[in-house]
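User: I'm putting together a small comparison set for a docking exercise, and I want a reference complex before I start. The sequence is below, and the ligand is adenosine-5'-triphosphate. Could you produce the 3D structure with the ligand included, as structure tokens?
Assistant: Of course. I'll restate your input first, then give the structure tokens for the complex.
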Amino acid sequence: MSKKALHERAHKLAERYCVSNGKKFRLKDIDPDDTAWLKEEQKPDAVKALAEGVDALAELQEKLYAQDRWSVLLIFQAMDAAGKDGAIKHVMSGINPQGCQVFSFKAPTSEDLDHDYLWRCMKCLPERGRIGIFNRSYYEETLVVRVHPEYLAKQRLPEELVTKHIWEDRFEDIRNFEKYLTRNGVIVRKFFLHVSKKEQLNRFMSRLDEPSKNWKFSSADAHERGFWDDYMAAYEDLIRHTSTDEAPWYVVPADNKWFTRIVVAAAVIEALSSVDLHYPKVDAAKRKELEEVRKALLETK
Ligand code: ATP
Ligand code: MG
């Protein structure tokens, strides 16, 4: 497939799940089992398309690195067992490890809690020329912290700042932060892997049934499942408030892993194609210098 055709296909697929204006967004409009125009029997073609997408990504990433101007921040959020780890692993598989940094954000440490909530994430932002991946992120501050108010209490915020507008305030701060990043050359894209409650149960069951998957199971995950509706409400609200043109959300159907992965790859290709990535241009003086070095090297034969 030509490069142009591949980019067009990526655009078409990514666009379907992109939310850049969240005002009217409703989670129930996205079916976790959706596979767009691709049928289960086309899965082998989809896997091939993913491989082509990964090659295209590797090429774009080389330019990103060489040009050393832009950077990319990819944020992944999801319920447990939605396939964050697998999506990250597959989509980034062809990329030079030196150009990519992955950070996982778990429950905050006491040092983290001694700071504002963006602090620990700011320290992990990608350097210029790199792709940074956040496996969970500051969005947890409007998810798990909202669903379990005891986490908010642990943050020791001054009492008068904990108002009923706190979530709206956080959304505003996050929107501003992402705008700030964009204005500094960071391309921000966010992914919510949308798995159904039924499929999560299937995946938990196979983690319990298959010994090689036992390590992935945690009883805490089963406990969080009990708060499913609260999480869905929190996700819908955050997507409504933090989807912007510069930092859109992709709400990716996640009941079929093969499909999730091609949508994520498509969106990352789209993100990298949204700016003019090119190898640094060699000017006349530099070309002259290279010519002289070539001559000098040949004389050492
Ligand atoms: P996996 O289970 O696949 O290894 P994970 O991302 O689920 O990956 P866990 O070790 O389960 O990793 O830890 C993540 C937990 O940390 C989640 O339950 C998440 O809600 C919690 N967490 C993340 N950020 C915060 C936060 N700011 N405050 C409180 N809890 C948080
Ligand atoms: Mg977990």
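The longest helix spans residues 43-67. The CA atoms of residues 38 and 59 lie 26 Å apart.
User: Thanks, that's exactly what I needed.
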